[in-house]
Predict the structure.
Amino acid sequence: MFKRIILSFIAGSFFYGTAAFGQVNPADWKEEANIYEKVYDVSITSNKGINLTFSQLYNEKPVLLALIFTRCSGICNPFLLQLKENLQFKSDTGGFTVLVLSFDPRDTREDMILLSERLGLKNNKQWFFATTGDIEKMNQSVGFNPVWDSARSQYDHDAFLVGINKEGYITKKLLGLRDKHELGLLISSVHDIFSPSYRLPNNNQLFSCFNYNPETGKNAPGLGLLFLALPAIIALLLVLGISYNVRHKQV
C-alpha cells in the first residue's frame, strides 16, 4: 500500500514539475532566441543591381532585416505595407537600412525588383530588396524557421523583423504585425540605446524561474523553478518519513 502511495506522489511530483516548467518555459522564446549573437555574413544580390555582403550593409548603417518571399499569399504583403507606413512617421529613418530578404530559393532578383515596384520603393535608397544563396545559414543565425506546406505550396512563417547593429549583432526581434511603438524600440536597439523590453540581469532576480544571459543568448533555470516544485518535494518527503516510521514500529 505504502509503495503505491509513494509511487503516486513521485508521479505527481514529476507531472507537477513538468506542468510548472511548461507554464514558465513556453515552447519557444522566439523573440529572445539569438539575441546579442552575430548574424551570418551572407552574400546578397540586390534589386539595385549590385552584389555585396551583409557586413557591407551593416558596417555602414544598422539594418532592419525583414524576411519574406514574393509568392506569399498570407502575411508578407501586409507586413511590408505596415512596415513602410510605420517608417513614414519616423523622423530618424536616415540612420539605418531596411533589407527585405527572400527566404524562398525560387525567388530571383527580378522577383524582388517587381516587389519593390509594387510597394513604390524601387528607387528608395534606404530600402534594399535582395536574394541570397545562403538563406539556410541566415535563417539559422537569426532563429527563423519557415516550414514548407506542400499542400498549399506556401511557407508557414511569422512576420519577422530583426534589428542588427553596426557590429553585426542582433539587438532585437519582432514577430507578427507590431505597432509604431514596438518598431521604435527596435530602431533604438540597433543604435545601441537601451530598450526597456529586455530586462538586464541584476541581483534582485534571485527567484526568477529563468535567468537570461545576454552574452550567450540562452536562458538557464533559476531558483524560482525550485520553489515551484517545493510543495510536491515536501509532500514526498513527508510520505517517505511516515512510511519509514510505520515500518519501523511494525518491526
